[in-house]
Amino acid sequence: MFLRSRCTRPALLAGVLLAPMANAQEMPAPPVQLRIVAVLEREALYRDKVDWQALRTRLQAPDADPAKTWPLLRDAIVVSSGGHGRWLPASYPLLQSSSSRATVAGSQPPPATQRTHEHRAKQQRTDQQRDMDTVGRRIGWMTVGAFSGGGPGDSVAWQRASVAFAGTLQDAIRSKDRAERCGWVVDLRRNTGGNMWPMLLGLAPLLEDAGGNAPRVGAFTTAGSERSWFLHGGVVWLEQKNLLDVGAAAYRLRHPGAPVAVLFGPRTASAGEATALAFRGRANTRSFGQPTAGVSTGNRTELLPDGSALLVTGNVMVDRNGQGDGRKIAPDVVIGEGEDAAAAARDWLLAQPACARAT
Fold it and tell me: What is the tally of structural domains in the chain?
């Protein structure tokens, strides 16, 4: 590795996606590797931790073996992004159009793997039901998992999938918003990331304040700028840009500003951390659990000449009050291993005035 010990300064721009590393057998061609170096040296959030000239010299050496130099560059991506950035090969499903996704990496997992996934899903449903039973019927429970959408970027497929995801969350809130509800739990403990915008739009009814307003709920920051996230009128905005819109289907709580307990932990990452930050600073809100994964930073996608892409980590996420450092987010109430986060959330919610009045 070509590391430097100098302090860092943040770079530029937005977009949140947490993706797995490329397969070890896949690597970009040498010209693309040099393009990656140029982008990271210019924009990566922790770019001052890497000696780019030394790395470039190694990549351009006459006897350079791409199979040996690629791990060096891959490590530089990790270091300069704080573990959040990635190189995605052209075969990566989200880089494919919706029509070609089925032909690229579209096979089902082998039976043993499928059984493992099914077992984990069953266990998660069991755990969730136990938690919901713990908080009781007076508290609405919303679990928000990872979301990566369908199709690349701002494609029609991505927009359609994103609006559907947000609509599903709002429909769930609508169905649970009954007269006896006096508070809410938002469970982000298994939210490993994906795209933040559908999550924020879907949870907009719970992010509103007592006046029914949901102004700025967070921002991306760099050394020289700040780009705020807003929720208004069934739309999620990045500054002046309308990113997603559920329009007339937007739902408002019976009692806007109801108390909300947010659960998160070490598996809460990237877009999950953005969602946790969106609730931080909201009145009548408290978080419970353990610190998050520590990638509360923003990515943008740099498309490369060979059809692959680089997720460039260039900014830090902050809450509505401008607080955030790109690292782990600590809950208001730390819940130790083996302790019951749902019970702690319930006890706090039931002690709030909104729930006390409902008794």
Answer: 1
